[in-house]
Amino acid sequence: MFRCIHCGAHVEELYREYSATNIRLMPCVKCSKTADPFVETDTLGIIVAILFHRRGIFMHAVNNRERSSPQLGEELWFATLRVPVLTMFCEAYLIWTCSEATNSVMDISFLRHPNSFSATVVATGMSQIVYRAVIVLLVSVLGFNWDSSKLLNAVLLSELHSIVIAMLVVCGAPNIYYLLLVFIMLSVSLAKGLQVSIGSTPLTGLLIAVIAWVMRLTFATFYANYVATTLLLQLSY
Description:
Layout lengths: L1 E2 L6 E2 L3 E5 L2 E4 L17 H9 L5 H12 L1 H12 L1 H16 L18 H25 L6 H10 L3 H11 L5 H21 L4 H35 L1
Antiparallel strand pairs: 1-2, 3-4
Helix pairs in contact: 2-3, 2-6, 2-8, 4-5, 4-7, 5-9, 6-8, 7-8, 8-9
């Protein structure tokens, strides 16, 4: 069954098609609002709505999109599967440029490979994998009943904001606080995504996001130390 994006109630149908040009969006029997007004929105509109945190957009993208329209659902899936590659390069670019503007209060220069942007991309991709793996592990340990495709969809869509923030850095001056903005935006988006994909509370979703970020930064620190040690050993020979 479908879900109302306003109250989360189960609904039998999101729209009723009377003819090719006559489609009526159906109301929710519980809250009487249109169950899902995003049914007629194209994939680009859905992505923009996610970036602007439109109310109910994760409920539509995770629960209703593919069921209401398989074709539009496939389009969103193909777009979503490109997110890991895009975010890997965008976050690496953020780390590469913004770490130069670091200060004594927020020193993240250890995340930046000193000699190679490609090495920074690899390190960023590995830390992202750790981040996603920790999320899946925490969801399993906490005993949530989850669907793998819904959870993956929610996690990947929540990472879209790093692409936009990277574009802001390109257009403006690099600043360390852009990375703090990435942490805040991705954590809030992940909490919303987990709420609709596994049924967690907002607080639990934020807690999962924070723990995943802590583990990601911990891995990044150990990896950076390993790379630094390896470089020193190579220079010593």
